[in-house]
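Table S2 (text version). Query chain:
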Amino acid sequence: PTDDSAAAEDEEEHETPAARAAARTRTRIALTVVLSDLFITFGAGFSIKFVPLFFIERCGLTPILVNAIQGSGPLAAAGTALLAQKASRRFGRVQVTYATKVAGCLCLLGMAWSPSTELVVMFYLIRVCMVNCGTGLTKSILNDYVTKKERARWNSAEAVNVFGWSGSASLGGFIIERHGYRAMFLVTAAIQFVAASGLLTVVHLVHDEKTTKRTKQLNAPLLGAASAKEDSKRDDDDDENLQGRASNET
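Corresponding structure-token output:
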């Protein structure tokens, strides 16, 4: 234990300002992504549990049709996720994630004011695709900018989403009783829009998937001498550029 403590203190003493700036940038990116996902899930809890009731009470659909619609949503979302991944290679992961989340918010507004059942169902299915297709992109951002020893800690933070669903569902029921389904959709859209907009604060820090190797250089100063040396052989120039960018952010 004494040797380990001495080694840790020695590493801290030799940690460069660029390494500390890189660590702060990594933490900022991870925290932003996790909080955005958390509040988007919290917002979804207001409405998602009550959509079947909305279909039955306001749209006049039968339980069989409601189950068929909800069952087709995840299938469509899986295909949309592949399209989102391809789009992220051209436009960027944060940009695509933000655009799809905002599109999901607009679909909620469409559900709230659509004059026909067909439009309501269409907006619902599009929303399911838009809100869920960016999940893989946000996870890839965390994997790129968080070291392996920290990855479990950040991923476990998303387990809080389970409790968020339960709490916000209760609030959603209260809103429906007092103000109706339309107000519930509006509250969900507002919360998710704000949560998605938070991603824009790190859009200039997150690289696209074509430069994933460069993102690893951001972690290099804190991964140990052996790992840092191996990564430096791949691209020394990119390491300097990324650390310089992190330094400029502080």
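Notes on Table S2: Residues 1-13, 221-250 have pLDDT under 50 and may be disordered. Residues 21 and 247 are 5 Å apart (CA to CA).
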